[in-house]
Design a protein that fits this description.
Radius of gyration of chain A: 16 Å
Structural class of chain A: alpha+beta
Largest interface: A-B, 29 and 27 residues
Strand content of chain A: 35-45%
Oligomer: homotrimer
Largest sheet of chain A: 7 strands, mixed
Number of strands of chain A: 7
């Protein structure tokens, strides 16, 4: 692994993560499944349950179709308090890379602002990701959101 | 657009954004206008007003001279509660680039610490930027600060 | 300094900082001293004391051995409230680089989550770092943590 290719790969991963965050924060959720491959895995789970390998999670989808369904039902239900998300992404950490796949881990912070105008910490935690390059574009094979913040004021409805 | 040039450009933009944040956080506000070209536009506006294209903003300057004036009057007035800003900048998203101009969008979080020593979320939101390169140095033609946090404990006096 | 080498160096520094944060956040504190050279300096100090050049600090170690001792006693004492840290690192700012040493300054935010599950701002501030490359790997000669957040709910026991 040369430094040059590292810098390139980091630029690519950074672009992907900032596009992902902007997609959610700008409420273009219908575009969100496009960040994943067809046979993907997406899970939001508490750090406690993750560390103990317990099955209970706040959200779990094992295909891109399920991600699409998730957004459809979210739009239809729409009974939750209106809020805005704002993702602050720390520096991505590349854990490993092979010819086919890149594994990364990245700390995140999601700030939520309700209609009152007050911003609070909605979720702090880390992403554990597996990425592949398809037609020149990085996509998620797996994104596991492991959150520290177990006590939240609103439900986890939208993806993180 | 090659990956190599992407990595270089991202390094340049990252440098600019971290210098900009350090300038404000270290209270060297007199240097702040230097990040802009002469004919620039700087605005701080709520997301609500921005989305509805309403004119009301928390701060608006349409030239570098106005930015300079802003800092002069801020130093003279000085009637607001003493506070420290700390900018946490998420990954910059390059939206487009031409030969002359780069458009970016970047999430930010500003933590404010008052003399009590308590830190709180002062502002969460995003930058919408237009950048040009002048004499080898990136400068802002336009920086629009669109904040989610509508309910704040202190006035927006210093730039974000 | 060419843009290319800038991008490479920034990728290296970013990797170091994300590994450092992951080491602490994942509670692998025994690995933490490995980020430093033998003759290193590590200090956690309030911005107020730092600016006034006052000697009092929350933590101060002037060798790698002292860092090791610090972790040993932290593990043995273990009388503080259980908590999780989550570092959100802003964009590193390279201040200077010579053949032997790189000086950087980087804003950070540490979110702490107690057993209640509530996340709060534990510390906001900046790192002031001096780095050297040893056997191809960047290491800290000096890391000074200068925190804004003077009023904290729990003691500073673990490194930041």
């Amino acid at each position: 692994m040369t430094f040059e290719s590292d810098a390139q790969l980091q630029a690519e991963i950074s672009l992907l993560f900032s596009q992902y965050a902007a997609c959610i924060d700008n409420d273009r959720l219908e575009k969100w499944p496009e960040f994943f491959v067809e046979q993907c895995f997406y899970k939001i789970q508490s750090r406690e349950n993750h560390d103990r390998k317990l099955p209970i999670s706040a959200m779990e989808c094992d295909s891109k179709n399920m991600l699409v369904d998730r957004i459809v039902s979210l739009r239809e239900a729409n009974i939750f308090a209106e809020h805005m998300y704002r993702h602050i992404i720390s520096i991505p950490l590349i854990l490993s890379k092979s010819e086919n796949e890149i594994a990364t881990q990245t700390n995140y912070l999601v700030i939520s602002t309700l209609q009152s105008g007050i911003s609070h910490i909605f979720s702090a935690g880390r992403y554990q990701d597996r990425l592949v390059r398809i037609d020149g574009q990085l996509k998620f094979v797996e994104r596991i959101v492991i959150f520290d913040t177990n006590s939240i004021r609103t439900q986890i409805v939208t993806p993180i």
